[in-house]
Structures are given as structure tokens and as C-alpha cells.
Amino acid sequence: MPESEGASGKKVSKQEPIIQLIVFRLGEEEYGIRIEQVKEVTITPEVARMPKTPGFVKGIANLRGDIIAIIDLEERFNLRPSDEPLPSVSYTLAIEAKDYTIGIVVREVPQPLSIPISIIEKAPEFIQDINIQDKYIEGIAKVEGRIIVVLDMLKLLTPSEIMQLQPK
Amino acid sequence: MKSREQEYREIFMAEALEYYDAMSRHISELEKAPTDEPALNELFRLMHNLKSNARAMGYNQIGEVAHHMETIFGLIRSKERIFTGSLVPVLFTGVDTLGNMIRAVGDEQETETVDGVEELLNNLDRLVKGEEPVLPDAAAVDDDANRKLELSDLVYIQIKKLDHLLNLVGELIIDRDRILTLSQEIGSPALQATAAHLFRISDELQYSVMDARLVNVGSLFNKFPRVVRDVATAEQKEVELTLVGQDIQIDRNILQIITDSLLHLVRNAIGHGIEQPTERLKAGKPAVGQLTMSAQTERDDVLIHVADDGRGINIASVRRKAVERGLVSKEVAASLDDAAVRAYLFEPGFSMAQQVTEISGRGVGLDVVKLAIDSLGGQLRVDSTLGQGTTFTLVLPTSIAVKGALLFELDERSYAIPLMHTDSVVSLWPEQLHIVGGTLLADLQEERVPVVSLRRLLHNGDGPLVPVQRADVVGRQDIIVVNYNNRKLGLIVDRFLRQQAIVIKPMSKPLDTIDLFGGVTLLGSGQVCLVLDVPALTRLFLAKRP
């Protein structure tokens, strides 16, 4: 975590390191991922449903010759009723996880956003605790009245995390 | 396409020239330090190898010279001769003469055309006997100034690089199919012509890369005479090994993967199949047991047999054991034919140590062999006659890159099943299907084959399958009969599509934990197509059947 005490509340100086986020909407909230974790953003390619996988794993898709898994985080975190189908055009963020690429499907076009690193506040402990999983919430950024939850995708997308509901 | 003969000669040439270069280097070292032990050992070894290779290829004259040279170097090594005086020029001439003869082979000339071989052999003989060699005039010998230098026609390449090349070709083929489909959709004649050309070129490229990876089965088989000797000695048995079909070609990685399996089968055959000499004589067999390893091609597959003439597999014991272990009920076991009973030998951990003698020791780790063959998309079969012997047959693909597959449709999506595991394709009407204990059964060529709806099997939850009702079966049923480990299973699909050669990409992480799918392939339409893994599917059915 960056040192945020000194900067919070003060005017941000020009030398402040800036980070770029890709911001997208899940349910009613906005979430952000550091741009270096995002390989590309694309219109969701045709997805082949894969039997014997949890429902939030939408299936597999051909992304420029790479076969990647496409997952729906809204369904994973119950942010939207699971019977609501995806719109005809959706977008996929291809994320570089540790040793594979995975796609995250979102309903609206993701937007890039540059913010000074210091405005990311550490998430309150109680939020972390609600979600039992590893601390994949890096922090919360307040930008012009918007609240953006910054996710650490590498922690969110471990294979055991993704496949935890896999029937044995 | 080159003939096998020519290919062998090129390999011989490349190795022989390499030996010749090394000989020239070492003999020069020896001239500077006449007692240099490593150089002497190398020269001795090089002569020996050249001799063996040349004789195997029928170049007897090269073999003869190399043999004589080997003898002299042996004598120098054992300090009976010293690398000095008149011996030195004779040996240098010997190395040069070998070089000339090897080049003669390369130019497709008889080695007899090389001058001075007779004199050389006579001189070498004299040296062995301790006489003085007859040396020609020094002036006549030295034409070394216009000696030719050659580079080998063969390169050694890491298999990793070939793997990479093969992967790239696989990607290329997928894109090519896509381009071909697109060119037909767009309908531009120029584009179609280019696409057709691309098709041919990439086909040839794929074939060439696959061809570059092929090695002789013999490169593995030839390691077995020693293994057989060692195991037979340890087991106090007499075994004669026969190798057949060493020149059959197969992908190098496939050979690598089956190495342990073959070792296992051979050890089993000697340890548990072939009896002690006294026991064999009592049974009216010759004391020496016969073990045969053979390879043959059958269509696109390579068949490898490991056959012994030992005591065979006792079906009754296996049947009893399968019931004891709860793999099958007593009633069902009694009705199974021999082949079906033998299939239990491949169940994980089927044969435990205390059972070894009882079922002739077969089954120890056979499941491991089975898994290795499965991973290649191959088949493992066993055939045995009690008292007469056992034959294991490995059915292997020639190449790992491309597999024949049957494409079908389910819920408007394409799936593929490798042809290796497909038995037949049938369409049946409801009245041709019976329901027994909640499972559909079809009578196919005097055989009752369980049939299951693939949709139900794939989308069933964690519990067992719901028993089938008569009302569930409506209309014509398109069924693919798959065969794994001698168990047939019919899969009801929506529609048969076609047969096609596909390039299978392994499932990427994190979905690779789902073993139902052996991988994915991309169709010409760009659609992702899941490739079903028949072994896993069969296991799933057995575990979930009502």
C-alpha cells in the first residue's frame, strides 16, 4: 500500500505518481483494475459454454488464437440475478493472471482513468472481512464524487478461487 | 520422398564424417603427446563405433580398416606398442584412408575405388605382428596441401525446438482453415486462389515438420536386449528376445512417453509371465522363454506388441478378484466375456502385492501404463491364453499434432470425439432401445451396449443420473458408440456433422482441471469446439449410472 496519510486531504502535487486504471461497472458499483494487469479490452467473442463448470464461468472463447476462460464476476459475487442474460453486445477484459490469461465479461464499455496513487485509500477492514477470500481489494478511490473499488486481479484470479465451486 | 535406404546412408555419412573429424583431431593430439590417455581412448572408441556402423550398413571394407586400426590403438593403449616411429605415418594414412572411403560412400562409389587400402591393411597387420611396415616414398604421400574440408549434412536439433515449430504449425493450420472459410464467404476469386495455395503450402509444411520429428521405433527397441538380459538374470530365467519392425517410424515424443510403459510390460513379462526353465519343461515348453517386441503400422496408427509365451492370465482369478474388490457384482461378472474381464487389469491398483502370484502378477502398475497410453489418445489391449502366453498391444498415433475426429452437434454447439476412441455411429428408433434398470441398452451386433444422452451426462449435477423413462426417448436417436478399455458406451447426440482432422490445443488454465475435455480445437468458422475425452467420459458414466 502506498503511504496515503500525508497526501489525503491536501492538494495533490504535480510530482505525485499517477496510475492508470481501467474502470468498469459491476452491478451498481464501479471497479478499477491497474492497466498493466489488463492485456486488452474487446467485444466479447463467441463463448462456448463448458459443461461441468460453475455457472459464473461463462465458457471458453477464442481470443486471437488463445483459448481463454470467460468469467462473470457479477454472477460470482451475486451482484445481479443469475438468470438475467448478458446483453447481445458485451465487453471482455482480458487479464494477465500469473500463468494464464482470463476474460472478465462486463456489460458496459470499460473506461481508462488516470488518478494519483495517493487518492487510493486502504479499504476498511470490515469490507475485507465480508469477503472471505484473500485481500483482493487494493483500496477505494474517490474521484469527483465517484467511488471506485480498486481490485488486485492477480489475487482474485487464482485458479483455486475461480474453480472453487467446481464439482468433484 | 527419399527411400529408407538413402536416409540410413545419409545418417551413416553424417556420423562417419563426424568420427573422421574427431579421429583427425585426436591423432594430431596423440602426435604431440604420444601417451595421452583420453585421446587414445577416444580413438579406440571412434574406430569401434565406425566399425560397427560400417558393418551394419554393409560397408565391409571400411569396417575392416577400422577394425585393424582399433586393434593397433588397443595395443597402444595396453602399452604393447608405442605411438612413435614408423607406426605414426601408417596410422595417419589409416585415418586418411578411412576419410577417403567415407567420402566414396557419400559419392555413391564403391570403397574399392580408394587407393592404397591393401597396402594399409598389410602394414597394419605387420604392426600387429611387431614387424616393420613398408612405407612408400615420403614425397609420394604428401598431397595434404589440397585436402578438402567438409561440413556435415546433418544437424542435431533439440526436440524443444521441433515442439515449438509443431505448435506454430498447429496455429497456422487453424488460421488457414479460418481464412479458407472466409475466402469462400467473401467470394473473391483471387482471394480463393491464394487461400487454396496457402492450404497446400501449409499442408506440406505440417507434413514436413511432422516428418522431421519421426524416429525409428528401433531407437527404443534396441535398448531392450540389455534390459531383458539383466531382468532375466535377476529372475533366473532364460529368455530370448526377438525384435521386429525396428524401422517403423513414430513421433519422438510418443516414443518418449511410452518408454516407461514398455519397460514395465517387458519386466512384467519376464518376471511374471515367463516361467522358470524347470517349470517350462514340465509344461512341455522349451526351457528358453520367447519374448517378442514388434512394431507395425496400421492405417495412421502404430501398433506395438509385447508378447511372451509364458503362463498367461488366469481369467477365473481376475474375475474373482474383480468381484472381491467390488468393481462388479458376482452375477454380472459371471456373464462377462474374457476380454471384458481382462479389462479390469487396468483398473487403478487392481492387483495388490499379495495377489501377484495368484493372477500371474499381471496388473502391477498396469493402470500407470494405461494412463500413459490414454494421455496420447492411444489404446492398450491385452490378449492372453492360459498356459500359452500374453500379448499386450499398444495402439499409438503416429503423430501427436493432428488427430482424426468425429464432429457432432449438441445444443447447437460443435463437439469432437477422437476417432481413436470411436467404435461406430448408429441411428436407432425408440423401439430398438431397451430400458434396463433405468439405463438405455442397444443391441449392436449381438452386443448389448449401454446408451446415455450426452446432454444428460454433461449437465447432470453431482448426484447419480436420473433413471431413463420410456417417455424420454422420442424420435430417432443419433448415437456415437465409443470404446474405451473394452467398454462400449453409446452417446446420444443431436446431430452427426463430419469426420475431420483436427489440431487439438490443450485446455488452458484454470480450466485444465476438468478432465472431461481433452482440449479444444478451432473450426474453420472460428468457432471453439470442445474435444471430449472418452476415458474420462466413460468413467463419469460408470460413476453416475443409475
From TrEMBL, chain A:
One biological process term in Gene Ontology: signal transduction
Gene Ontology cellular-component annotations: cytosol
CheW-like domain mapped to chain residues: 18-162
Entry protein name: Chemotaxis protein CheW
Organism (species): Hymenobacter crusticola
Classification of source organism: Bacteria, Pseudomonadati, Bacteroidota, Cytophagia, Cytophagales
UniProtKB/TrEMBL annotation, chain B:
PANTHER family per the UniProt record, alphabetical: CHEMOTAXIS PROTEIN CHEA, SENSOR HISTIDINE KINASE CHEA
PROSITE patterns, alphabetized: CHEW, HIS_KIN, HPT
Domain Histidine kinase: 197-400
Catalytic reaction annotation: ATP + protein L-histidine = ADP + protein N-phospho-L-histidine
Alphabetical UniProt keywords: ATP-binding, Chemotaxis, Kinase, Nucleotide-binding, Phosphoprotein, Transferase, Two-component regulatory system
Protein name, as recorded: Chemotaxis protein CheA
Domain CheW-like: from-to ranges: 402-543
Cellular component terms per the entry's GO annotation: cytoplasm
Pfam families found in the cross-reference section: CheW, H-kinase_dim, HATPase_c, Hpt
Gene Ontology biological process terms from the UniProt entry: chemotaxis
Residue ranges occupied by any HPt domain in the UniProt entry: 1-105
Function comment: Involved in the transmission of sensory signals from the chemoreceptors to the flagellar motors. CheA is autophosphorylated; it can transfer its phosphate group to either CheB or CheY.
Domain of life: Bacteria
Enzyme Commission number(s): 2.7.13.3
Organism this protein belongs to: Hymenobacter crusticola
Group of enzyme by EC: transferase
Keyword Phosphoprotein recorded: yes
Residues that bear Phosphohistidine: H48
Gene Ontology MF terms in the entry: ATP binding; phosphorelay sensor kinase activity
